[in-house]
Amino acid sequence: MMQPLVGVVMGSNSDWKVMSKAVELLEQFGVAHEYRVVSAHRTPDLLFEYASTAQDRGLQCIIAGAGGAAHLPGMLAAKTPIPVLGVPVPSRYLNGQDSLYSIVQMPKGIPVATFAIGEAGAANAALFAIAQLALHESGLAKQLAEFRQAQCEFALNMPLPPPA
Ligand code: RP5
Fold this sequence. Notes:
Layout: E1 6-10, H1 16-28, E2 33-37, H2 44-54, E3 61-67, H3 72-79, E4 84-89, H4 97-104, E5 113-114, H5 119-134, H6 138-156
Helix pairs in contact: 1-5, 2-3, 5-6
The site of 5-O-phosphono-beta-D-ribofuranose (RP5) has 11 residues, from β3.
GO biological process, one term: 'de novo' IMP biosynthetic process
Pathway: Purine metabolism; IMP biosynthesis via de novo pathway; 5-amino-1-(5-phospho-D-ribosyl)imidazole-4-carboxylate from 5-amino-1-(5-phospho-D-ribosyl)imidazole (N5-CAIR route): step 2/2
Protein name: N5-carboxyaminoimidazole ribonucleotide mutase
């Protein structure tokens, strides 16, 4: 089993529908990763352990998704020097605006790179992690260039209906 380079964590299994979009991309690019539930509020000791051992375990970054009072990414960032990429998960009552504000408004000195609310954010966090790894891995850089080219061609060939 390859040593994980990217950790994907989420506050609850109710976040999986969104966070699985990050895992899918990491799998598609063949990036060694791990994923699990780590909750800032329900499993605070696990959060501390996960963050404080992340660097020694070889993780290059952590993608963390949470909803509502989304303290997971910020608390991880407080406990590890490796980059934390935060994904605001849409919440039941405030549509993820609460998640976004909770994650993005970090105090100066402890950054969390914050992505869009929902599936686009999760996918982009994975692509960002891949882009960082690709700086030092030419095979991954080639895969990323091909992915972007395919996306470009898809957009160029998007059909539009005739005007009414
Ligand atoms: C957060 O609370 C989780 O990240 C999740 O988005 C939200 C709701 O969790 P559940 O009540 O669905 O487990 O900690």
